[in-house]
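Sample A.
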Amino acid sequence: MDDRILTTNQGIPVADNQNSLTVGERGPVLLQDVQMIEKLAHFDRERIPERVVHAKGAGAHGYFQAYRSMAQFTKASFLQDPERQTPIFVRFSTVVGAKGSADTLRDPRGFAVKFYTEEGNYDLVGNNLPVFFIRDAIKFPDMVHSFKPAPENNIPTSSSANSRFWDFISLTPESTHMITWLFSDRGTIRSYRTMEGFGVNTYKWVNAAGKAVYVKYHWKPAAGIHTIDRHEATRLAGEDPDIATRDLYDTIASGQTVEFELNVQIMEIADELKQDFDPLDATKTWPEDRFPLIPVGKMVLNRNPENFFAETEQAAFCPASVVPGIEFSADKLLQGRTFSYADTQRYRLGANYLQLPINRPRVPVYNNQRDGAMQYGPYGGGTVNYEPNSLAGGNPHEASVAHPEVYHLDGDTVRQKIHLANDFTQAGERYRSLDKTDQDHLIDNITSSLGHAEVVIQERMAVNLAKADPELGRRVREGLGLQDA
């Protein structure tokens, strides 16, 4: 039978964990009660800042296995051998809500996958919707500020139903496409097992010969895609606000697995400027009839975290974590994300957050970065913490690269909107692709939320929606009781 003795953090046995050290039975507590002080001091520091976005999440361990070698497109080692199972950790999340918010409220859902590959960690960080609100990372702080509680009273957006949200959206026409996704029933779910995932941004895959292609990621749930309407979402927010978190945990705890299939779309870089949209624009999708989905492999989630805080809460993802064979495109949103994600984790978890077990690569790490808060890496090397050196035999030394990254960049330094912005075309196509029931739900969801905004904002948003599709704009206008434009 397990027989573990209670100890302090220093490993000293604790004989009495119920009573403070006092002067007599009823006297004052002594400062020398180091056991109590340690216990209270640790308790005072048990909470770390919640994530600015994606604060509430659920995680699971598992593995990824490729169906076949993808060497034609990428030299990434974990995508070569169909016999290899690469360990992974996944974190699903809501985006706007705080840690105590409901799982079912209208919101994008984060879909972040950490691959512990033999070449280091690869983080594929996306959402359950294929597009985003903005195309340039410089607008991200303003976007999040408008979605979060108001600064003067801290009143939440209540499922985005207020003037702040719609004011920003109506003045940001590139968001129109995202609205046709978010305010469809795709924006309300009850299970993380039955939602799609998307990389959203455009990346590059590079093969061993140095040839690059553009790539978009798609995760398809083996359990199928299932959503709920806003009325069911509101009911569950009151009755079982943690339903998606509970569903994921209970499914795996019962011995079942949760599976997703990874698919990609591939575009030749030479075809980038031949499209009627910008392929690097995160507010756009790639037409699947022109760029069909290619199955790559499966992800199997089969183990729950043993400690939510140590694993799910401290898991840190960043799109900048790529392995050889995967590179960044010039996607303006992606370029900003490569900095911001790691930077926010340094603030939340400390400079050495990558030494935490959930974030640590499964391969040796050798570099000359030292010190900082919570440094505990087992660094040797004696006197050498620089490169190049001769005192340590030149180690650690630079890796050899068969095909170093060489890109030709030519252009003026400008702050300029891309010329293929085209904010409304795909939003209209998305609306017309829905069946009548889904169109009705989209209209109802938009008018229910937009109806809480000021009339001038309603007018502005109705104009944008009409530019996407005249019927969409007219029906929203009618639902809001606005006069004809």
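Sample B.
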Amino acid sequence: MRILTLHCDYIKFFPKIPATKIRDNIEQKWFEYKNVLCCFVAIEENDNENKIEIAVKEILNIFENVKPERIVIYPFVHLTNKPAKLEIAFELIKKLEEKLKEKVETYKAPFGWYKEFEIHVKGHPLAELSRTI
């Protein structure tokens, strides 16, 4: 699993075109979240629920240090050249969202869509971090 975290003043996204046959059933409208830790996540081959637990701990650690108000999980297969099968990635991203929601306010960008997006990243030492799980 690959994770890129960005501490953002805001992220806005609009699901434009379905990208895969397995995808979230989502309304096509603009979504906007302010003061977020945006977590771009790529699920890789051999990722499993144990890695989700590790990812949750890593993300929460960053969250505690950065102190945003909420988290946005943004599925982003482009971080890896070894992606998991679509069905597995879909389920593990949902699990990641569920586990984080137990601890902090968490949202997820739609899985399986081409999205238009806009972000504004804060400029401090912890604003841009990456993790390989």
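B remarks: The chain has one domain: 2-123. The longest strand covers residues 2-18.
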